[in-house]
Amino acid sequence: ETPMAHSQTSSPAVFEGTKWSVMAGLGPGRDVLAQVPEFAVEAGYENITLVHNDLDAFKGICDGVETAIEDAGATLVDRIEYAASTTDFSSTALRVAEGKPEVVVECSAIQDSIGVTRALDQQGFRPAIIASPTSVDPAFLESLGDLAEKVVGYTQFSEALGYEGTEEFVSG
Q1: For a FRET experiment, which of 51, 61, 88, 113 has its CA 20 to 30 Å from that of 125?
Q2: pTM, whole model, 2 decimals?
Q3: pLDDT tens-digit map of 82-110
Q4: 23-to-11, 19, 26, 40, 64 alpha-carbon distances in Å
Q5: Are 82 and 93 in contact (CB under 8 A)?
Q6: Mean pLDDT throughout 17-28?
Q7: Which residue in 30, 26, 28, 38 sits closest to 129, CA to CA?
C-alpha cells in the first residue's frame, strides 16, 4: 500500500476500496453531522429533512445522518437531492417547507448551504435547527447575518472543548 496524506476530504471513496493508505485531516463524511439527530431529539425535535447535492462526498454526509436518525428515534421527513450545479434553491426550499421539518440538515458546500438557508427564509420557513458542515466558516455568518442564528455545525478541533492535553497542544 502507498500512503497518501489528504488534508480536506471526507468522500468515502478515499477511505475504502483504494490502493492508498489514507491519512486525512477530515474524518469520513458519514461521521460529519451524525450527532445531529441525537442532539435534536434531546432538544425536543424529531422531524428531520436532509438536503444534499448529487456529489458522493455530500451524499455520504447525509447517509451518516440518515442512519443516525433511526438510531436516535427521530423521523426522516424527506431526503432531497439536487444537482451540484444548482444556484437557485427555491424549489428545494419549497419542498423542504412543505414537509414542515423541525430540523433541516444541509449536507453541502458553503455556497449551497447559504443558498438553501436564504431560500428557506424567502419561503417564510424557519426550522428550529439547521445543521450544516460549513456553518463554522466565518463566511457563513458574514453572508447570512441573523439567518445564521440556530445553525449548528461541526469542527475537527476546538480549544473550547477542553479535552485532556488541549492546553499543552495549543501552547506548544
Answers
A1: 61
A2: 0.80
A3: 999 999 999 999 999 999 999 999 999 99
A4: 13, 13, 9, 31, 20
A5: no
A6: 57
A7: 38
pLDDT, position 1: 54
CA distance 40 to 38: 5
pLDDT class for 131, splitting at 50, 70, 90? Answer: very high
Cell of 9: 476530504
Angle at CA of residue 62, ends 57 and 66, nearest 5°: 150
Q: Label each residue of the chain as H, E or C.
A: CEEEEECCCCCHHHHCCCCEEEEECCCCHHHHCCCHHHHHHHCCCCEEEEEEECCHHHHHHHHHHHHHHHHHCCEEEEEEEECCCCCCCHHHHHHHHHHCCCEEEEECCHHHHHHHHHHHHHCCCCCCEEECCCCCCHHHHHHHHHHHCCEECCCCCCHHHCCCCHHHHHHC
How buried is residue 59: exposed, middle or buried, by Cβ count under 10 Å (0-12/13-18/19+)?
A: buried
